[in-house]
């Protein structure tokens, strides 16, 4: 269940309160003894306060927004280069799009406006990370008995804050933005600590830029980022350049076609990084191809999505097909299938048996 309430407090102030909860009966049906305690904690039930914010105008040219919120920097619907401020819920990878995966984080945001330009400053005192598959789940098989489980060192909320800023210009048919952030890497990595090992989150610097350009029925998207401070188990910290290019075409009736490619290149690469536990290539590619088509006067929507890791899919792929039908004005049902193709590098190397068939029903009131 997901409940969201939007409030217009005055002409200059708004608020949102949102929360959700779920309970999955499958674990009792199958037998709870078949699952690890950690899987049951993460997957059987959950509840959380989602977006919870107050927004308003301090001056005619200055807005403020405080509370748990989502800030979207990226242009892509499927891949991430600039979109680094909100962690994701990855417990079942590939099931839904990024827009439904972002986890809200408590922030203080100020936006100043001058004509076509806006300057955004963000302080993030609450530290949250990706919700990833846990040991014993379908997407993270349990290690052999007796294997050591490294401890995790996490930064603390209100003690290790994050900061970000962006300058954005929106014009007729195109837009451009410049970005900077000092943040914690959502993905933990193994660090060598005598006499054992533990996982840590690296503090990263990001500088980048993005833009959109519309020409007729075409939309061109681009993002570029430079990341400093990526840590590894086997060697010293490295820097990385990430780039994204994409296009969408709206020329077909009731149809949208999009193709996006992200390339990540690690600077000063060393061959030892190819081995576990780093399992990192010098250059990696991600490709997302999406087709969306509406039928029956937009009552029926078909979505086909392919996420491919490396051009040849040597690091795996995720294929998803969804059909949603609006039965009544506020009631819709859906049917979907997700297919996983195993790759040669973690984590996709063990996903080949995780195919899903999904049925959904939604009532909005």
Which structural traits does this protein have?
365 residues; mainly beta; Porin; 17-stranded antiparallel sheet; 54% strand
Examine the coordinates and then state which fold CATH places here, giving the name of the CATH topology of the largest domain: Porin
Secondary structure class reads mainly beta
Biggest sheet, in brief? 17 strands, antiparallel
Q: Percentage of helical residues? A: under 10%
Overall mean pLDDT stands at 92
Explain what the structure shows.
This protein is mainly β. It is 4% helix and 54% strand. It has a 17-stranded antiparallel beta sheet. A three-stranded mixed beta sheet has the order 7-11-10, with no helix packed on it. The radius of gyration is 22 Å and the shape is globular. The model has no long low-confidence stretch (mean pLDDT 92).
Short characterization:
With 365 residues, the chain is mainly beta. It is built from 2 helices and 20 strands.
């Amino acid at each position: 269940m997901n409940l969201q309430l939007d409030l217009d407090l005055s002409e200059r102030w708004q608020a949102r309160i949102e929360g959700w909860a779920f309970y999955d009966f499958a674990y009792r049906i199958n037998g709870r003894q078949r699952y690890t305690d950690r899987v049951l904690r993460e997957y059987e039930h959950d509840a959380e306060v989602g977006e919870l914010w107050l927004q308003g105008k301090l001056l005619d040219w200055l807005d403020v927004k405080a509370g748990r919120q989502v800030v979207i920097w990226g242009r892509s619907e499927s891949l991430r280069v600039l979109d680094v401020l909100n962690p994701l819920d990855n417990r079942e990878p590939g099931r839904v799009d990024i827009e439904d995966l972002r986890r809200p984080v408590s922030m203080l945001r100020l936006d100043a406006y001058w004509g076509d330009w806006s300057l955004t400053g963000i302080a993030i005192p609450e530290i949250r990370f990706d919700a990833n598959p846990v040991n014993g789940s379908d997407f993270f098989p349990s290690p052999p008995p007796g294997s050591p489980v490294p401890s995790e060192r996490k930064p603390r909320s209100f003690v290790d804050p994050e900061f970000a800023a962006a300058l954005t210009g929106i014009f007729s048919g195109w837009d451009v933005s410049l970005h900077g952030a000092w943040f914690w890497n959502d993905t933990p990595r193994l660090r060598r600590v005598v006499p054992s090992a533990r996982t840590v989150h690296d503090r990263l610097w990001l500088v980048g830029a993005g833009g959109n350009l519309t020409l007729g029925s075409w939309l061109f998207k681009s993002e570029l980022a430079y990341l400093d401070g990526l840590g590894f188990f086997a060697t010293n910290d490295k820097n990385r350049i990430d780039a994204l290019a994409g296009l969408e075409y709206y020329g077909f009736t009731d149809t949208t076609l999009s193709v996006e490619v992200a390339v990540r290149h690690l600077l000063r690469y060393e061959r030892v990084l190819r081995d576990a536990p780093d399992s990192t290539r010098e250059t990696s590619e991600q490709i997302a191809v999406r087709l969306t088509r509406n039928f029956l006067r937009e009552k029926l929507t078909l979505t086909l999505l392919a996420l491919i890791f490396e051009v040849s899919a040597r690091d795996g792929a995720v294929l998803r097909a969804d059909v949603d039908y609006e039965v009544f004005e506020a009631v819709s049902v859906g049917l979907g299938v997700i297919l996983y193709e195993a790759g040669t590098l973690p984590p996709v190397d063990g996903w080949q048996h995780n195919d899903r068939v999904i049925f959904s029903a939604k009532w909005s009131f």
